[in-house]
Structures are given as C-alpha cells and as structure tokens.
Amino acid sequence: MADDPQNVPGNGPEGEHQGEPGTGTGTEHQGEAGKGAEGDQADAVKTAETAREAAEQRASEAEQEAARLRRSNAAVKGVDLDALRAEVRAEFTEQLVRAELRAAAAGRLRDPADALALLDTSALADSGGGIDAAAVAAAVDQLVKDKPYLAADQGAAPAWGDVGAGPREAAEPEPATPLDRLRRAYGDA
To answer: pLDDT at residue 31 above 50?
Structure first.
C-alpha cells in the first residue's frame, strides 16, 4: 500500500534505523562522518511527519468510506415497509371513498364535487380499507336534506324551451297548386 508508513523511504528494514524515534530500539548512527545527534533527530522528525501524514490520509479515506456506507445503509434501512404499506393503503382507501362519494352524489347533487368538499371522507371507510356504501348514501341524503339548494332538479323542464327547429307535422294539408297557395295566403278574396 502506498500510504503505509512501512513503505515510506527510510522507514523500513532497508533504512538506516528502525523503531520509533527516541525509543532506543533502532540502530544508531555512530561513526558516520558529519552526522551526530542532531542528524538523527532531523531524520526522526521527518519520519514521524511522513507517518503522521500517511495516517491522516488513511483516516480521511476511512471517514469518507464510512460516510458512503452510512448513506447506503440509510437508503436501505431507513424504509419501514410496514409503515410504507399502511401509508399507501390509507391513500388508496381515501381515493376509493372519494370515487364512491362522487358516484353516489352524481344524480343527487348539481355538482358532485360539493359532496367531496362538504363531507368528511375519513368517516366513510373502516380501518381495514373497506367502504360502507350505505354510509356513503346516507351521508349524501343528509347533505341534500341539510342543503337542498345543492340538490339536482329532478323532473324540472329543460333550461331552454322549444325553438321551433326540426320536422313538424303540418296543421293542414299542403295546397295542390300555386294558385291555391296564394288563395290561402291572402284569404279567399
């Protein structure tokens, strides 16, 4: 491994000394010309700094890997499947109740959306997700009773009357000749 302090030049068995600086377990430089106690300390400081930098690099890599693993685990473990199923079931039940309410209000109210706005949909389903059709019909009936102005007009005439379009039966037969037509138009004069 490139970051291993054992692979750093001057810090292995091929180096000039082994062991931690200041422990006295390594060989000492006695007899080399130009080096004394000060040279040994400089080498020891350099080796310690290199080892410290390598250790900091490994620690940084380990922290990054731990953060990646935490994110990965949170994505997998953070989902409670039972809670997710319950949430989906509740949303689906709410949609079913709304559809049932719209269907029940379709012929009874002018605008079936009024039933959705004015009625409590949560009271129309049981805890298992079943919908009580009788409760839905009773809720719409009660809404029509409480607010009759929302009710659809049953049996009322269309909003527009007869505009005279389309085929009609003639009141009297068509004249046989154009002269008969003129006599009818101007009266028998």
So the answer is: no
